[in-house]
Sequence to fold (490 residues):
Amino acid sequence: MFYYLDIENTNGDIQRHILHPLADGGVMSFPLTDDNPNKAAYDAWVAKGNTATEWLPEA
Amino acid sequence: MAGAGAKLFTSGSVLTADQVNTFLMDQSIMRFTSTTTRDAAFGGAGEPTLAEGMFAYTTDTNTLWLYNGSSWVNLLGSDIGEQALSNRNVIINGAMQVAQRGTSVAGITTGAGLAYNTADRWGFYPTTMGTWTNTVETDAPTGSGLRNSFKVLCTTADASPAAGDNLQVGYRLEGQNIQQFCKGTASAKQFALSFWVKSNVTTGTYVITLSDIDNNRLVSGTYTITASATWEKKTLIFAADTTGAFDNNNELSLLIRFGLGAGSNTSSGTLRTAWTAAVAADEFVGQTNVAAAINNYWQITGVQLEVGSVATPFEFEDIGVTLAKCQRYYQRTTGARNFATTVAQTSTDAYGLVPLPVSMRVPPTSVDTNTLRAFDLVNAATSISAVTLDGSVSSETYAAVKIVTTGMTAFRTYFVIENGAGSYLGFGAEL
Fold:
């Protein structure tokens, strides 16, 4: 399962980040850029017809 | 008369100065032009008889041999004087001593890009081929000096893999760390891979494939497991390759994959035991299926990859050295009271710089966290819902992060603190 979160960089650009819950309860995140080595897992998941939803703060 | 070889002296023989200078002196360590001339010099009429403890040196490959009573053994590998005496092993964490992410993860079904679960540097890559648990076990070959091993355990089987299914344990090497193999040159060296392995799956063949990512080439080798649930030492010598040099940079150049299962897309071709242009169908030809049944497992330790035709004993390493090498690709801080110091930009996000104790391969490409809180020393700490990387200003020596939470006051300092024993902050720069 993947989520997304759009965050403003220090240079003012909006960068999309992909978040992935881990088995130990943690969360991994990475900027969604073409050269990011973690993008392959996200792309494979999307290719199966999945769509990321927005990461929302805990209630 | 260098390389005179061996001569049988008999009663009444006249010993000349030339024979002393050649045969006798050379027979302390006999010199031959090749293994062919060496083997032809013994056992026949008028020739000496081989005896345990004899030494020979062959000049064509600069190799020192010991006769052990039944065969000649290559003592030091080929090209004596060119082989490293230390730092031979280009595998980091081959003894599975470092596991920054933890020692057990269950429910694994995918690996691409998210392959690192337990032992540092060791990736697990299932593609729709069962469900798995990865662990670092305190189980290793008795008397080897090794103490840990990396284990994959099948918890949901896939006895009939579809064409696109596959299953591997992988190890990725950076180009600038493997230049000593001289790949793509006339001086190209062989690849000696050795490891201990244990599994309950003893039927069929296991395939190991080396992939040259820079030049899209591959070579494969095979091994079998003889006894169930028993540690066995394996050595595979992969051919040298005079075509396609590894890039001398910090990117992925060599991928080692230990096959555990393969659908027809990666097993219907021809097994390539010499380097050739990469074809997916050739990658795991004949690979047995470890995913065939629940509770099947495969376990490995003592992994060493080195230059040459001989696998030398496993090179043990100081734990501090191994940890620092691992931290070039991933580093995690756990249990600290203060993981980072940030300044709030708005009520919901704060920005901070985190120094990295070891320079990473590249600026971090991922961040992972668990149960962190933001604390301003006055108000109650609030849970951090996300930590993201600001790739535009991160470097190999510090990570720029943004934390996302609620209720912050702009321009106030917020410490990122723990929220229990399981708290951590980690940065990845994996290949």
Notes: The mean pLDDT of chain A is 89. The CA atoms of residues 29 and 49 of chain A lie 21 Å apart. The interface with chain B takes residues 5, 7-11, 13, 15, 17, 19-20, 22-31, 33, 36-42, 44-45, 55-58 of chain A (CB under 8 Å). Helices of chain A lie at 39-47.
